[in-house]
Amino acid sequence: MARQVAIGMLLVVGVACERAPLPAGKDTATGSPPPPATTESAEVGMEAAWDSSAGPVFLTIGPNAGVAAVVFPALPPDAEVDGSKLDPGFLKGSSFELFADGRVVSEATVRAIVPVEAPEECTGWPLVQLAGMGADSAGRNWAVGFVKGRVAPVAYDSIVALASADSSRLAMDVARIASSVPGDTVAEMVGLPYQVRRAYRFTAAPGVDALVAEVLRMLNQEANPKQEHLFIIAERDSASRGRYEIAYSERAAGGEEVLESSEVLTIARTVPRGGVVMLLARYLGDGVVYSLFERSGVRRWRLRWNSPYVGC
Fold it and tell me: Where are the beta strands (DSSP E) in 38-169?
């Protein structure tokens, strides 16, 4: 799954939003990546604990589809990850469901542990070899895996895969929502166009439509280029008269080298609790942090958990 998906559509909006601070992880040599230049706290704080109903670990695709990185959510977000000291041996023989694009694309069994070979200045999760995967292309392009039976995927549509009319309608919804986020503090970017980087729509609950989007705008100054990123979750139901209303938002502004790019790995329901969650990969510099968002009520989402930073 590509880290960046742009549809080439510019949206003229004036926007800022609230941001839950992302606890930085550590790198063995170079330290944590620098935080975004501008941040604001969201209305709800982050809960430290991973949702255990989603399983004790999850997998992300490794150097190829048959190798997976094992993420241990019990580690605190400021931990220094040393894959050689984390033992995934207890997973041998365990069955996982592999997700992509809002569905299960394959099942796999953990067959063996793969030795970690990484530069000294880099951190990373331990690796395992998978067996029993489907041979089709969909099964080879998975994004995240959970212990079988723990999580059920929620289907979602990407703006790039929608028909032209639906894509334009979703882009217009994103533009309106972005323009309604209060507190635009980056004065030099007011009035600059936004680019929709990613946008997805899904059903959050019976009768409740939802969307998640990442947009950005750029100030192309040769000496000091700047960007502003906006991450939005919004919902609409009968009470909102068919209009999307903000359920969660984040804003970050600064130089391109210190800003993150987010990718939705999955939207899902935990079993048997049934809560709706969203797992994101946040790419920071040459590494990544994983974040779990949770629907906590009607038109309310919260950032529940962050992984430690891993990378170089």
Answer: 58-61, 67-71, 95-100, 103-114, 127-131, 144-147, 151-153, 156-158
**Residue that has been written with the tokens 């995240």 in this structure:** 144
Encoded tokens for 82: 């040393």
> How many angstroms separate the CA atoms of 181 and 107, rounded?
41
As to burial, measured by CB atoms within 10 angstroms (0-12 exposed, 13-18 middle, 19+ buried), residue 41 is exposed
Distance between CA atoms of residues 188 and 228, nearest Å: 11
Contacts of 165 (CB under 8 A, 6+ apart): none
Q: How far is Cα 60 from Cα 149, in angstroms, rounded to an integer?
A: 17
pLDDT, mean of residues 201-216: 95
Provide the whole-model pTM: 0.82
Distance CA 108, CA 147 (A): 10
Whether the CB-CB separation of 70 and 90 falls below 8 Å is answered with no
Residue 223 pLDDT: 66
Query: The tokens of 225 are what?
Result: 């280029």
Which residues contact residue 311 at a Cβ distance below 8 angstroms, ignoring those fewer than 6 apart? 27, 33, 122, 123, 124, 284, 285, 286, 287, 288
Tens of pLDDT, residues 259-308:
778 999 999 999 888 899 999 999 988 899 999 999 999 999 999 999 99
- Close Cβ partners of 53 (under 8 Å, ≥ 6 residues apart): 150, 270, 271, 272, 273, 275
Q: Which three-class secondary structure state does DSSP give residue 169?
A: helix
